[in-house]
Amino acid sequence: MTHPALRRLAAVPPAYYVFVLLLLVLWIARPNMLNPNVMGIFIRQVVPLGILVLGQLLVMRVRSIDLSGGGVILLINYIITSRSFPEASGPAFVAMALGIGGAVGLLNGYMVARRRVSAVIVTLAVSIILVGLVQFLSSGKPPGDVPKYMNQIFDLKWGPVPLPVLFWLGCTACMWLMMQRSVYGRFVEAVGESTEAAAFSGVPVERTVIAAHVLAGLIAAVAALVQTGSIAVGSVRVGLDLPILAVAATILGGVVFGRGEGGVWGPFFGVLSFALLFVVMTVFGIDDAGRLIAQGLIILMAAILYGARARRG
Amino acid sequence: MIAWLRSGFSTRRSRQGLWGVPLVIAVAMVLAQSLGTGQFATRENLFNLVAQAMPLLIAAIGQLFVILVGGLDLSVGSVISFSTAILSLDGPSVVLVPAVFVLAALVGGINGLVITRMGVHPIIATLAMQYILLGITRILRPTSGGKVPDIVIAAVQGSVLGIPLPVIWGLAVIGLAAKVLYGSRFGLHLFGIGGGVAAGMEDAARNHGIRVQRNVILAYVACSLFAALAGVFLAGRIVSGDPNVGLLFELDSITAAAIGGTQLSGGVGSLHGTVLGAIVLALLANGMNLANVSPFVQTAIKGGLLLAIVGLQSRKKMGL
Predict the structure, then answer these.
(1) Are the C-beta atoms of B136 and B82 separated by less than 8 Å?
(2) Which fold has domain A14-312?
(3) What is the ipTM of this complex?
(4) What are phi and psi of A152, to 5 degrees?
(5) Residue B149 C-alpha from the chain's centroid
């Protein structure tokens, strides 16, 4: 790996390779599926995951992790579908969701940055609390229907492109701009490179980490709204595996605790890879067990490729 | 003795962590429950409690080994389910029982190798293993069923001289872990490696002549072996294989270790603390069951307890 071109190739996040590989497999096996309408529907399904990943990559850049997204999505989904607030309008729900997401993010950030508690433990514990709360409130039964207008917004299209996909692209572009152009983006990068060096250089490390968690909470709330729009009936199990998948997609996209070669678009393609993976699995009739094994192997391979590169560099 | 007890409440001096807090909670819960309900202090309920707590206790002790070196094992739950699935296959018990432990050692070895030799973060490596192993388990046993060898059932459900075997097994496991952690070079090295990692000096242990990679790999092997033992124990209790029986065990085992004062950054923790942590969780479940608290609320309370207790333990490192 001494040749510059080879080194450049090895620096490309695994997500791009996986994406192209899966696209080839699909093109050979089922070329008729590769049209905008079919793909649009499949990609639309992973939009909540894609949005959640934006928060995940932010906290992973500052050497933290957020596994509380599942609980946030579940709680917001429950509040909207259970008709606990029958008079609430659309904007009220949005405000409520953002309030919950921001509060959870603030708690996570405070515990991680100020109290210096392990981020895995904090966010898992928060998720457990929220899931337990929702299951208690609903006694384990599906709450109720999703308001019609949410489904209608989710089903809108702009030409052949579904609106949620456009929204996801927009959010990703915003995040990319923030990481590239804003002072806060620089702070995140500095903290990720080295917490000590950042602190000595005058970067407000604790506030940067807290802000990352608050943003991740708000983003999880947005993901929850999109997720709720994608289903017709509320559920007490919705979104529980999303945080883990988000971590997997982020790693696949080349962002690993503190290191961010993948930027924002690497994880974006990580999510697209998962969308294609689900399609390929369905096409080949691979069941749940095979899907788990494939997911595990992909995470492992991506991490090993990256680990190997880190040691050489 | 007094000084030792006091060390359990101070994070500053102790290498054993804040184990005094779970001790107080455990004693308070025992007192409250025996005063509150007449059913608690009966012999039957106490033995039941031990049998219920045992799988978690064993898994938490395994988790302690990897947490001490600054790692984390999220594949514990899958190893447990996998073990029950293997045990419920058709075959003689002389093959199945050793196979469980050989395969578990293999899983732990792969975890350790991927983490040490390939530089993968422990959370990611063991998360991937959790998925892969769960997939394999679902292929072996898609739904719960099958029959566990009689010898396993007898070893878990029997009793000797009126003492149920789980009590004896529990003491044996704790004794074994105490010997390994406090009475062997390997145990000392685990504390040494973790202490260096927690202080931000990853090379400290290596500079003192400790073979870091080999010891870390062995810690993951030990963790998987304890998880397999927990799986064998559970299989003996439910008499069949179940692909979902280990679900959330990785979380509960981490919770037990954390409640027991084990610091997730490594180097600080104790066997007695972890045992106390597992006992606190078991007492909590037992008490809330007696008081008819909804299982959903129980999960939420468990999460809250974890959050409160780790919030008490300040450390230097920020992040994971």
Answers:
(1) yes
(2) ABC transporter involved in vitamin B12 uptake, BtuC (1.10.3470)
(3) 0.81
(4) -65, -40
(5) 24
Determine the number of helices (DSSP H) and then strands (DSSP E) in chain B: 14, 2
Residues of B in Cβ contact (< 8 Å) with A303:
114, 118, 120-121, 124-125, 128
Q: Which residue of B has its CA nearest to A120?
A: B320
Whole-angstrom Cα distance, residue B204 to residue B206? Answer: 6
Q: Is the pTM of this model over 0.90?
A: no
- How long, in residues, is chain B? 320
How far is the C-alpha of B50 from the C-alpha of B170, rounded, in Å? 8
* Chain segment B149-179, per-residue pLDDT in tens: 888 888 888 788 878 888 888 899 999 999 9
- Asked whether the beta carbons of residue A125 and residue B315 sit closer than 8 angstroms, the reply is no
Q: What span, in angstroms and rounded, lies between the C-alpha atoms of A42 and B114?
A: 33
**Sequence spans of domains, chain A:** 14-312
Contact B265, B197 (CB under 8 A): yes
Hey, what amino acid is at B113?
A: L
Q: Which of residues 211-270 of A touch B (CB under 8 A)?
A: 244, 247-248, 251, 256-257
DSSP states along B3-69? HHHHHTT-TTT-SS-S-HHHHHHHHHHHHHHHHH-TTTTSHHHHHHHHHHHHHHHHHHHHHHHHHHT
Report helix, strand or coil for A158. Answer: strand
Report which secondary-structure segment, H or E, holds B175.
Answer: helix B165-182
